[in-house]
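Session log. Operator J.P. requested a structure for one protein chain; no other inputs attached. Running the standard single-chain path with token output.
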Amino acid sequence: MGVGFVTCVPLGAVGLYSIRKTLLEGRLAGLVSALGASTVDSLYCAIAGLGLTVLSDLLQESQNWIRIGGGLIMMVIGLIILFTDPPEKSVKPKGSGLLGTFLTTALLMLTNPLLILVFTAAFSALGVHIEGHYYRTFSLILGVFIGSSLWAPILVLSTRLFKQGPNPPLKLINRLSGAVMAAFGLLVVLITLL
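Structure written below.
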């Protein structure tokens, strides 16, 4: 749980996206968004923990294409957010909206296969050797998911800081999160290409 809590801090584009979802669509959308990120964290933990070298090697070999694709998707989402005015009232998402929120965040997280190396390094530093021990591997993956998921309520509840007063700065947050996401996506593409 500690590894999941420490290594899976929702910073950057994913954190801003979750905060934005919380402010615009409510706490449930924010929680679902953060849980989308936690699910991918757990997937990458499973790859590292199970020692799935074939899949790990494939992801590492394809990481440039994954990063370019993910960076372009991030840029598009960021530009859409940047140039879209937030609704005057909170929007309550329906079932498909929550699924879309979950999948969008998961897709954003999938653009960073380097998390496999982060988990591998963390497990090595802690002396965790679990290959062949499926119960221990399952426990480790579940622990990382729980630790990572602890950020969901923290992130959602911390948005109360933005909601103080009758008019939360939704337009500013929209512009900021859109600009950061688009810039981060562009940076990922440029770094990968260069």
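Operator note: The mean pLDDT is 76.
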